[in-house]
Amino acid sequence: MIPSRDIQRLVEIMRALRHPETGCPWDLEQSFDSIVPYTIEETYEVVDAIQRRDAEDLCEELGDLLLQVVYYSQLAQEAGLFEFGDVVSGITSKMIRRHPHVFGDAEQRDAGAVKGNWNRIKADEKAQRAQKRLDRAAKQSEDGDWHLRPEPEKAGLLDTVSGAFPAVILATKLQEKAATVGFDWPDPEPIIDKVREETNEFAHALETNNRRAQEDELGDLLFSVVNLARAFKIDPEVALRRTVQKFRDRFSYIEQELARTGSSIEKASLEEMEVLWQRAKQP
Question: Which positions carry the signal peptide feature in this UniProt record (predicted)?
Fold first, then answer.
């Protein structure tokens, strides 16, 4: 099979990999659930390539992420659920529908992006999806892996926030949602005091042998720090990733300096590494 810039070739490759007689044994063993960890990993690798400003890596990682979409679509087609074309049709329809000021008639384009239109359109879509779920649930049987799983009754404001996000992002989204009804600090100073309070409570918890209490207090501290970031309009995920990169760079400097003197991380004392760490922090 010859590579191509046409997306259809990728669909054909995935179909060949999943062929029951001539396909790849590993790919044939996979399911929706088994490839979820790979999807999450590929998403973070895209983010990493962007933050490193590595265009070559970004191009490759976007391809890996695109493969995940094609993979799920092939599995869905085999199960009689939908196919890749339906995914493409769905997203193109959504983008056109949500941008009437760009793709609408002359009157809609002249009106421009009316404030509130985006939220209204999304609310209409959500209501339509909910009705479709009810219709599907009424028709389907309990046989097979893809019957709709019942969800618990949800009526609270925070129930509208998906729990699928990483913890830092989820904390931010929950705080933002609560703030829409006024449940928020009026200014940053009380949040700073709260961070100090939670730090002290974590320190006290460390004096006990109660592991659960220590975890709870650390969670409270982290949640408060996320709130502090939000108060100053700082994305905590971005801020933490920058710190992680600084740590990488400074630790690498220590390794390089030790190697230059014939030593290594394994041989160096903590005091020696601290001296180099401080040197690495200098501009």
Answer: none
